[in-house]
Design goal:
This protein has 443 residues and is α/β, with parallel strands linked by helices. It has 22 helices and eight strands. Helix 8 runs antiparallel to helix 9, helix 17 packs across helix 22 and helix 21 crosses helix 22. The longest helix has 18 residues. Bound molecules: adenosine-5'-diphosphate and magnesium ion (MG). The site of adenosine-5'-diphosphate (ADP) has 18 residues, from helix 7 and helix 14.
Length: 443
């Protein structure tokens, strides 16, 4: 009988293993142990509630079809949560480390918590990953690499992880630093001849949050040091979270570093869609004790779309104005208070035609050339740039955008986008040309 129970769970595992990635299986299922089993009772040991939720929320149907069900048609599973292992005691041995410990107040923004992070399709995945990491540091995705454009919530999510770790894992030693601060620490330690101490300090952490890793580019010595520290921590299953404005492969870093950063989970944080932006506006204004109607929230969200920090700037300005003037926020007030900001961020509605026009003017070629299929170098390059900008700046499916280029396919568009993404990193002239096309767009 017991044999059957083991097989049922194993069969379930075998089935799951085939249907998900190796990393996902390793990250989640390898942490679940069947500790007791009869024909109608399965006791699973999990390291934390998060793994339990993950299993129940994502594999309910599969569990129900492999394991026996109770009267309520629910799989007969009981969970026990593993007792947390006692943390190794790391008594500071030198005055220096004591000093660091005292100073080790994490400078986390109190408002950057998971509760204040508004979810939408563009950030749901990365938020769940960050949440998972915060619940079980070192046990799910390691490292977690979050990348995305400016003002889209990377630092917010990283601090949210910090808050949760501080609250839920009080014994863990955590540090949240910007890449610049890390470099400064190293520079100072070189001056003070205390490099070993600083290295020891970083290597004794349980959780390391590093913001804006792009600043490690072109700092070869520091990169190597960072990479050594990174490996030392990861090898001990210590959690690392990194943010960046680009994915690892687009950073000008050594292959070793790039590969290391791709070891765990690389997650993108995108531009929030209209509804999410509206929800952010309403949430942020409530936090400020300020009431913004839905109509006004939409008005702002439709006009500021690329950067949540700018949205926040607009809300701050409006709320301050309303507060000082003792005046409710009206559309007129929005238009006059935010006039400059809105003109700045929404110079003109960008359309596929305006991108194509601007590329044609900048590169002195005709529209028919850009939409045609000539492989002549200059024309092909201009076409790729137009495709790149269209994908970057417009919403809509790839196929839809591609169809404007004489009926090309989404894979051609994607290929062009990737190529320009790579080249733009190395080629300053290309970068300036693209900026010129963008500038022409906004006139
Ligand atoms: P990044 O580090 O990606 O440049 P930040 O994390 O500093 O961006 O975010 C910029 C501002 O926008 C912060 O005030 C942050 O709270 C806010 N923000 C970004 N995304 C969200 C979101 N999804 N929900 C709530 N606030 C957000
Ligand atoms: Mg940031």
């Amino acid at each position: 009988m017991q044999e059957t129970s083991v097989n049922a769970w194993n069969t379930f595992l075998q089935f799951i293993q085939k249907s998900i990635s190796e990393t996902e299986f390793e990250n989640w299922f390898s942490q679940i142990n069947l500790v007791e089993h009869t024909d109608d009772r399965y006791v699973l040991k999990v390291p934390n509630i998060f793994v339990q939720q993950y299993l129940l929320e994502n594999y309910k149907k599969e569990l129900a079809s492999f394991l026996p069900l109770d009267e309520k048609k629910q799989p007969c599973i009981e969970f026990v949560i593993e007792e947390p292992k006692a943390q190794e005691k790391k008594t500071p041995t030198t005055p220096f480390i004591q000093e660091v410990k005292k100073e080790q107040k994490l400078r986390l923004n109190p408002l950057y918590t998971f509760d204040h992070f508004i979810e939408g399709p563009s950030n749901q995945f990365v938020k769940s990953a960050a949440f998972g990491v915060a619940q079980a540091p070192g046990k799910s995705f390691n490292p977690l690499f979050i990348h995305g454009g400016v003002g889209l919530g990377k630092t917010h999510l990283m601090h949210a992880i910090g808050h949760t770790v501080l609250e839920k894992h009080k014994k863990l030693k955590i540090e949240c630093i910007t890449t610049e601060a890390f470099i400064n620490d190293l520079v100072n330690s070189l001056k003070n001849k205390s490099v070993d101490k600083i290295k020891r300090h970083y290597r004794s952490l349980d959780v390391l949050l590093v913001d804006d890793i792009q600043f490690l580019q072109n700092r070869i010595n520091f990169e190597e040091e960072f990479c050594n520290m990174f490996e030392a921590l990861i090898n001990q299953n210590k959690q690392i979270v990194i943010t960046s404005d680009k994915p690892p492969s687009h950073l000008k870093l050594s292959e070793r570093m790039t590969q290391r950063m791709e070891w765990g989970l690389v997650a993108n944080i995108g531009v929030p869609d209209l509804e999410t932006r509206v929800a952010i506006i309403q949430h942020k204004s409530e936090l400020k004790g300020c009431n913004i109607s839905e109509q006004i929230a939409f008005y702002i969200a439709e006009r500021i779309h690329q950067n949540v920090r700018q949205i926040e700037g607009a809300i701050n300005r409006l709320c301050a104005f309303a507060h000082i003037m003792h005046h409710p926020i009206t559309l007129d007030m929005v238009m006059s208070t935010l006039k400059e900001l809105l003109e700045q961020v929404t110079p003109k509605l960008v359309s596929i035609d305006s991108i194509i026009d601007s590329v044609c003017t900048t590169f002195e070629i005709s529209k028919s050339q850009i939409k045609g299929s000539s492989r002549q170098k200059e024309i092909a390059k201009a076409r790729q740039i137009a495709m790149y900008l269209a994908k970057e700046m417009l919403e809509g499916s790839l196929n839809q955008i591609a169809s404007h280029f004489g009926g090309k396919t989404h894979s051609t568009l994607l290929h062009a986008w990737k190529k320009i993404c790579q080249e733009i990193q190395k080629d300053e002239t290309l970068k300036r040309q693209i900026e010129m096309v963008q500038k022409n767009l906004s006139q």
